[in-house]
Here is the input.
Amino acid sequence: MYKSYSVALGAAMAVGLAGVAGSAMAKVEGDTIILGSAISLSGKYSTNGLHTQRGYDFAVDRINEMGGVKVGGKTYKLAVKYYDDESTPARATQLAERLIQQDGVEFMLGPYGTGLTKAVAPVTEKFKVPMVEAEGASRSLFTQGYKYMFAVLSTSEYYLAPVLDIIAQRAKAGWKAPSDLRIGMAFENDGFSLDVRAGVLDVAKKYNMKIVIDDKLPADLSDMSATLTKFKALKPDILLVSGHSKGAATAARQIEEMKIQAPVIAYTHCEAAKVHEKFPKSANGVMCPTQWLDNLPKQDKYFGDAAKWNADFKKVHPSYTEVPYQTAQASAAVLVFKDAFERANSFDRDKVRDALAATDMETFYGDIRFAPEGNNIAKPMFYRQIQADGSYKPIITHKDMDFPRKVNY
Here is the structure.
């Protein structure tokens, strides 16, 4: 099995190695195509950074095992050159420039998250280096006119907003008038979560729902007790939270500690934070947006369908009881590059970019087709509800919901 390799360097060490990188890290070395990625292996996004890296590596290994990438009548293997961006945008920018200018990488996989993707995208655009990203969902990424960035995931305004559509259906079916519903929410002050919030505000306005708490999470995402204290006092019907995996873990922990009761709770990054394992009482009944479901009837020749990808990944990484969608979409990003290389039949960056722009494919993760702005327009968001046994139940309409949320603190 051909393994991808990781390098997690501090600033001093990176400078010290700058002179020896040379052509060894060029885009193609012998029979190997080198992809590059600055990824969060430390800092507040390290949990999802690791999920992302494992998804990339799993796809690289599978493609290599099944014959690699065929370009110009020759077969190539894939490998990924990683640096740790320490969950810091400035570091991500520095490392993207290093990968391109010093290591000679000409094809990039994205970092974890919107903030880091925003830091890297101007660099890849400046040097005309194609980047396929799997974790930057903010709609603002796709209003900058970038021509070399392509994202396999749905954009962030759709993460929590459609949950309100489902709740409105449930309310009309025998709970309250949607306009009587009251919402408390707390969001991280980053591009992703602020876009999630904007989507929520749009749908709440459509139904005349009332926002009674609208808080920002603290920068370190370690405490939302102030919001939850307000929530206990005001007793809104719905609690919404977005703060990546650390914010999800904090929410689940403090909801349990403070014994928060609410008919509906929804937050992002449930699986990535493993809240169903770590905080099963408060997680019971939580609604979770997801980019992917492991029972989707979508497939490709490398992974089969979604269920097979899920089972195969768990065999390699048995610590996962629920594989986060961040991992699945990272694998899909590698498949997109493989497909583009072969359709371009070239390693010319502009030819590969044009092939990426023309992508129209089905994968285990779902359909992938890019708008001119680079976002995937072929795949919707999905929703699941955590059950008492820790499993995740797909939610299509309000009839699929367990309502109201039941907890026994």
